[in-house]
Design goal:
With 362 residues, the chain is an alpha/beta fold. The chain folds into 2 domains: 271 residues, Zn peptidases (Aminopeptidase), CATH 3.40.630; 85 residues, Urease, subunit C, domain 1 (Roll), CATH 2.30.40. It is built from 11 helices and 16 strands. The strands form 3 sheets. An 8-stranded mixed sheet has the order 2-3-5-4-6-10-8-9, with helices on both faces. Strands 1, 12, 13, 14, 15 and 16 form a 6-stranded mixed sheet that branches. The protein has a two-stranded antiparallel sheet with strand order 7-11. It starts with a strand and ends with a helix. The structure holds zinc ion. Zinc ion binds next to loops.
């Protein structure tokens, strides 16, 4: 299964050609000397700093941003344009984005570098934040297919977090604001995404950028674009992320909307309950023993090959019963049941017959 999840720096550069130098600023350069660009749009006093693709393989929120920008700039949105100035960094990690990696070119997770500031990308974000002194930050990410919205819940198609400002999880004034805004977005989407919106793990980690900004007293919201059933391209998710962005700004200017931060805590927490695929009636070989009638849990490994992302079947666990749910279940046909699979956790199923059966390779 090949897919369009890849969003490299060249594509962003093409998108940015429509903006002139008054709206487009090069903030600095990545480890491999790629420009890190920021758009400044709108003329309002309320400043919102937004960054996406801090993790280069998390592209859905970037694509939704590129849908949001023309909506925001449309003639119908004069009120929004005069209320807000948006500072948008669509791709904070262009080197990682180029090779579809979470990490930057020095193999550092930029979302664990808030204290160390060891990477140019981290320093650029921090300097931009300090220069702008935004009223609100949006920290945009994508999450894997593992999560359900609460125990036994549906796949978490979207998740949000108001990052902790301290180890006690104090609801500071800034957090109160971000919690209320998250509630507004959940309300706007819950009819379309019932039981499918989760609350991300809120354990305080000052080395995460969101937590460090929350600690500084600025309201910040973490977005996680997740998995919608059968939507490995994440096109459906992209449309929900776009709706969330719109709902957020509408809530910010609508003074009649009052959102209680306590409702935030009613959003179910993400649980790690899913794998991508469970094969049943499989014969496996493990430690030299052949065992029949087993279930194999498979997690897809997203792999960039020739500028396309492929989902390769990685073995996660096996058993006659599994304590996991899957986005898809497949019972092997009698001929494939005799096809022995050597089970090794973390290895790919290389058997061509299986790959063809599941159309996992193009
Ligand atoms: Zn991320």
């Amino acid at each position: 299964m090949a897919c369009k999840r890849y969003y490299p720096p060249e594509k962003l550069q093409q998108f940015l050609t429509q903006f002139d130098s008054s709206e487009k600023i090069t903030l600095g350069f990545s480890v491999q000397n790629r420009p890190i660009e920021m758009l400044e749009i709108g003329s309002g006093n309320y400043k919102v700093l937004i960054w996406s693709q801090m993790h280069g393989n998390e592209t859905t929120t970037t694509k939704a941003l590129l849908d949001f920008i023309p909506w925001f700039l449309d003639g119908n949105q004069k009120t929004l344009q005069s209320s807000f100035t948006l500072f948008i960094i669509p791709q904070l990690n262009p080197d990682g984005s180029n090779v579809y990696s979470r990490y930057n070119a020095n193999n550092i997770d930029l979302n664990r570098d808030a204290i160390d500031q060891s990477q140019p990308e981290s320093r650029i974000l921090r300097a931009t934040y300090e220069k702008i002194q935004p009223d609100l930050c949006l920290n945009l990410h994508g999450q894997r297919t593992l999560y359900s919205a609460g125990k036994g819940g549906r796949s978490a198609s979207l998740s949000f977090l108001s990052p902790a400002a301290d180890i006690e999880g104090t609801v500071t004034p800034a957090r109160k604001k971000s919690m209320g805004l998250i509630t507004a977005m959940v309300k706007a989407l819950e009819e379309e995404l019932p039981y499918s919106i989760g609350r991300y793990d809120g354990t305080f980690n000052p080395n995460c950028v969101g937590d460090s900004i929350s600690q500084s007293g600025t309201a910040i919201i973490l977005f996680e674009a997740g998995h919608f059933p059968d939507d490995y391209q994440r096109e459906q998710t992209q449309s929900y992320v776009l709706k969330a962005y719109k709902a957020l700004f509408i809530a910010l200017i609508d003074h009649n909307q009052v959102f209680e931060s306590k409702e935030y805590f009613m959003i179910p927490e993400n649980e790690n309950e899913f794998c991508d695929l469970i094969l049943s009636s499989a014969t496996i070989l493990v430690d030299g023993n052949e065992i029949k009638n087993q279930k194999i849990a498979i997690q897809f490994r997203e792999t960039l090959i020739d500028e396309k992302v492929y989902f390769l079947p990685e073995m996660k666990t096996f058993g006659s019963k599994l304590n996991l749910r899957a986005h898809k279940y497949l019972k092997l046909s009698p001929s494939l049941q005799n096809n022995v699979i050597e089970f090794k956790k973390g290895n790919l199923i290389e058997n061509i017959a299986f790959n063809e059966l599941f159309a996992l390779k193009n």
